[in-house]
Amino acid sequence: MAESPPESRPDAVSARGDDDLAARTRSGPGRLLIAVYAVFALAATARSAVQIGTRFDEAPLAYLLSAFAAVVYVLATACLARGSRTSRTVAAVSILVELVGVLAVGTLSLLDPAAFPDATVWSEYGRGYLFIPAVLPLLGLWWLRRSATR
Amino acid sequence: MNEVVATTLTVVALVVAVWAAVLMLAGKPVLVNKWHGLVALGGVALLELGLLGQAVGGIVAMIATDRELDGFSFVGYLVGPVLILPLAAFWALAERTRWGPGVLVVGCLAVPVMIVRLRQVWEAHG
Q1: Chain B residues bordering chain A (beta-carbon distance below 8 Å)
Q2: Which of A108, B75, B97, B122 is 20 to 30 A from A18 (CA-CA)?
Q3: What CA dihedral angle connects A134, B93, B19 and A42, to 10 degrees?
Q4: What is the pLDDT of residues A41-96, one digit of tens each?
């Protein structure tokens, strides 16, 4: 937080600072991170759409959680790619929700497997997805922190 | 679904992923005016053509077969990789660092995963 408050700078400088921040958020390792997020957003959205559209009664809790996870991934992807101050905040919140979600659902799915007759992305800490769902939020938070300052 | 096509596409996807990983480790961005960048993009284009063929063939096979099939998932896993690859190429070309080919690695590795799921749905295990 070495930057001076926006109101003390001329608008042009402030706007360029915001452009820099956005460019920084979506380039370098951020570009790879957003790509992985996008794959998960697409996969989770498509999968939960099929689950809810064709067999919702079989495992309502699991399928609602799948849909929730999909929304979180889509939000995180879009906000990271946009990279403005506001969208970075939204990204940080959705990534925190993602972290809590994968830990909570991961633990619950081990303690009470009967509640999850069909798997979600976050079941068993994302084991069906090579544990990427558990690692991704940590990388996301790390990247938001690292790209915050030059 | 055609096993030979699915296996061939898996191998091609892995080969292109390895090549992109080599570029990433060597710190080479994906550039259209460099031979190594063209090889990567050519590989992606070849893979995309094959995936399009698989999607068409797969949908025809789905209509022709009389086995029980989760049609939505099957079409999803046929069309998904066809959409992912061009997006990955576009996203990779916008990056002028080693992380550009990194994006291609992610896009290419998604392909074999989706082909595995496609097989499972076809064999009704999924």
Answers
A1: 70, 72-73, 76, 80, 83-84, 87-88, 91-92, 94-95, 97, 99-100, 102-103, 106-107, 110
A2: B97
A3: 40
A4: 999 999 899 989 988 888 888 889 889 999 999 999 999 999 999 999 999 999 99
